[in-house]
């Protein structure tokens, strides 16, 4: 799985990789699975000697879910990591995803604004109250735009371009489920209908791909924009729908 990682951009401070689905960015506590960090530290062993603030997440600026494919920024030293993480917190790094969802999305373009609260076993949930004193409840905003409408077995599907404005865990998946358009193949945030379609299409991971990143280099102060093509397994799904 690690040998499927592609380097899209690299300089002396950072790199952007294209992560395949099925690969963890880092291991949950107590687990030992192949990860993006393993790949990075083998390729750049000198990074192990640096004073990272979190010894379990060397170089990691942000994350993608295990079964989400696409673009990921990795810092080569703690100073760059801190600067890039600040850019994320200030919403200066722009991320764009593709998602195939159940139903015809109406309106075709829109904004989802719903706070997210951590649920059981890592599942995130929408918070229905207008405010809360709990730090576990966090505001979340996602913009979406319809790219194309499809049908499969008389069931409408929508390919969306999605731009999260905040970086909550599982945000896109939770938000699309919240508006009754769950992502095809999502094993956690699904419905009876989406499970049926996913099974018939033969898709066992969420149709979610981080296709574009745009940010300002923290040292060179130049604009960087990188793109990733839809992986073959998801292209095959689009060939099956009309």
Q: What descriptive keywords fit this protein?
A:
9-stranded mixed β-sheet; 12 strands; 242 residues; Pseudouridine synthase; globular; 3-stranded antiparallel β-sheet; alpha+beta
Mean pLDDT: 90
| CATH fold-level assignment of the largest domain | Pseudouridine synthase
Secondary structure category: alpha+beta
Number of strands: 12
Order of helices and strands: EEHEHEEEEEEEHHEEH
- Most strands sheet: 9 strands, mixed
Q: What overall geometry do the principal axes of the alpha carbons give? A: globular
Q: From the coordinates shown, what is the CATH architecture of the largest domain?
A: 2-Layer Sandwich
Low-confidence parts:
128-135
Let me know the CATH homologous superfamily of the largest domain. Pseudouridine synthase
How many helices? The count is 5
CATH class of the largest domain: Alpha Beta
The gyration radius over C-alpha positions equals 18 Å
Count the domains: 2
Structural notes for this entry:
This protein is of the alpha+beta class and about 240 residues long. It folds into two domains: about 1-90, Pseudouridine synthase; about 95-215 and about 225-240, Pseudouridine synthase, CATH 3.30.2350.10. Helix content is about 20%, strand content about 30%. It has five helices and twelve strands. Strands 1, 2, 3, 4, 5, 9, 10, 11 and 12 form a nine-stranded mixed beta sheet that branches. A three-stranded antiparallel beta sheet has the order 7-6-8, with helices on one face. A hairpin with a 2-residue loop joins strand 9 and strand 10 (about 155-165). The radius of gyration is 18 Å and the shape is globular. Residues about 130-135 have low confidence and may be disordered.
């Amino acid at each position: 799985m690690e040998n499927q990682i592609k380097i899209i951009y690299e300089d002396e401070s950072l790199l952007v990789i294209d992560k395949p689905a099925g690969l963890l960015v880092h291991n949950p506590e107590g687990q030992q699975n192949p990860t993006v960090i393993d790949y990075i530290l083998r390729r750049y062993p000198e990074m192990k000697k640096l004073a990272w603030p979190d010894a379990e997440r060397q170089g990691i600026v942000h994350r993608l879910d295990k079964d989400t494919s696409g673009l990921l920024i990795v810092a080569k030293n703690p100073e760059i990591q801190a600067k890039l993480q600040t850019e994320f917190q200030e919403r200066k790094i722009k991320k764009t995803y593709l998602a195939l969802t159940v139903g015809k999305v109406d309106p075709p373009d829109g904004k989802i604004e719903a706070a997210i609260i951590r649920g059981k076993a890592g599942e995130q949930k929408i918070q229905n109250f207008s405010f809360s004193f709990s730090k576990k409840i966090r505001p979340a905003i996602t913009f979406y735009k319809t790219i194309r409408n499809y049908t499969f077995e008389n069931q409408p599907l929508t390919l969306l371009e999605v731009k999260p404005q905040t970086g909550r865990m599982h945000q896109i998946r939770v938000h699309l489920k919240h508006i009754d358009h769950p992502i095809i193949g999502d094993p956690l945030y699904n419905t009876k209908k989406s499970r049926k379609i996913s099974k018939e299409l033969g898709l066992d991971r969420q149709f979610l791909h981080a296709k574009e990143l745009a940010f300002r280099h923290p040292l060179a102060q130049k604009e960087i924009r990188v793109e990733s093509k839809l992986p073959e397994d998801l292209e095959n799904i689009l060939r099956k729908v009309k």
